[in-house]
């Protein structure tokens, strides 16, 4: 036993040395403090430094809590007695940890030599630190248990919501989900609970009405069963836009301008210098790179296409911001995504306010694509009309006819306006507006795919709920992976979504109320048009429809 005790006492993982024993203040429960000893209204960030105020006092006890005299007295004790004292301290800590699972809120004075008996401080060993509790200290601020108790006593009851159990709520379980049975109209009860919460706690919390997780039956009054989630406001609301985000947004916009100009120059491929064309298109090309200054004369002629693509994307963003302004919702600055094939892949725009309901999410998400698609289709239609009358304009560019095989819907519209003979040739003369409109419609269609937090994913989540987004998202990823949608752009677009846009949007405050039949119908029609735009025309169908000269491939 003495040897085991000596080995246990000498282990660095069991205790701190007698020369330096760290002690934390005992948490004291009071009406103005939470269980961890800090004010309830204090804002605590994710960063550990913001939680250092919890540990108000550290002390290094040179002698174990008894001053210099005690230190001298202990230095004169026999080594065997010191070993027994350390082993006793380790056993006491282990038993205390087994009872509470964390730091005890109260401790009785100990008479064991070498262990501090000061009642206001709590000695602990390195091995006794609970990792879960440490993560809680460093994580988001949790809901105050006293507030939870007051909410259950004052808000819930037989006439509103009969509470049956509580579950963790939020990304890290920092909130509380109240699960039970609804006793009336969900919109009326939710509004009443929000008013009562504001009267009780002010702006401290946000209350969410969400679908009950893992529920196998619907509510008897119609619709899904609902639960109420409670989160602190600083945890649930998005943070402000930082200076670095502004800088990144500006750099991405400049790159997008460059990629749009490059698209305009590429549209002049038939008139570019042959050595430059062969260098960028022939994979077997060797030799030194050509002089890029030869492209400068083509920059001015490329501006109409660049301006058109940029105008469509800016109009898209204006649609989002106008709809958000009407709903009193804040949006972040757009982060444009450059792409050398379409000029741009669109932009990433984040919500900077909690959305009140799913109707708001749907309306804001759909406003941008509708605005961008309207301008794109106008450019595309006017461009086709100008292309069908070569005498009316002199700004036509020559492009390969197989480009019209990239979209079933747009290829058929081009075939109907330009005619069979025009598209059933090696090259086609078209107006730059056709290129700008085509790229704009394709980019809009990609962003309307029902996956992640794309515009289409947000609209689907608003119209049918978050549970429906999983099945549609999996189908979309499969079609992109097989190349069914988007043709050669399916792989880069799928990687972009996986890296930047795969996470669904956070729930609204009212994440249960129905959005109406006409919104769902509009979304279904939009997704159908998106599929028609992104499906390429295969060779056999292209030959039958007269879209492109298949024999030249």
Tag the structure with descriptive keywords.
alpha+beta; 553 residues; single chain; elongated; 19 helices; three-stranded antiparallel β-sheet; four-stranded antiparallel β-sheet
Q: In total, how many beta strands? A: 11
> Mean pLDDT score, rounded?
75
* % residues in beta strands: 5-15%
The N- and C-terminal alpha carbons lie at a distance of: 88 Å
Radius of gyration: 33 Å
- Tell me the major beta sheet: 4 strands, antiparallel
Number of helices: 19
Order of helices and strands: HEEHHEHHEEHEEHHHHEEHEHHEHHHHHH
Assembly context of the chains: single chain
Portion of residues within helices: 40-55%
Morphology: elongated
Secondary-structure content class? alpha+beta
Q: How are the strands ordered across the major sheet?
A: 4-5-7-6
Poorly predicted runs: 7-83, 92-132
Can you offer a commentary on this structure?
The protein is of the alpha+beta class. 48% of the residues lie in helices and 11% in strands. The chain has 19 helices and eleven strands. It has helices at 2-10, 67-75, 79-100, 131-138, 145-154, 186-201, 233-236, 243-266, 274-281, 296-326, 358-387, 408-418, 420-423, 432-447, 455-464, 466-481, 490-501, 517-534, 539-545, and strands at 22-25, 59-60, 121-123, 161-169, 175-182, 205-211, 226-232, 335-339, 343-348, 397-400, 427-430. The strands form four sheets. The protein has a four-stranded antiparallel sheet. Helix 11 runs antiparallel to helix 14 (432-447) and helix 14 packs across helix 18. The protein is elongated and about 80 Å long. The termini are far apart. Residues 7-83 and 92-132 have low confidence and may be disordered.
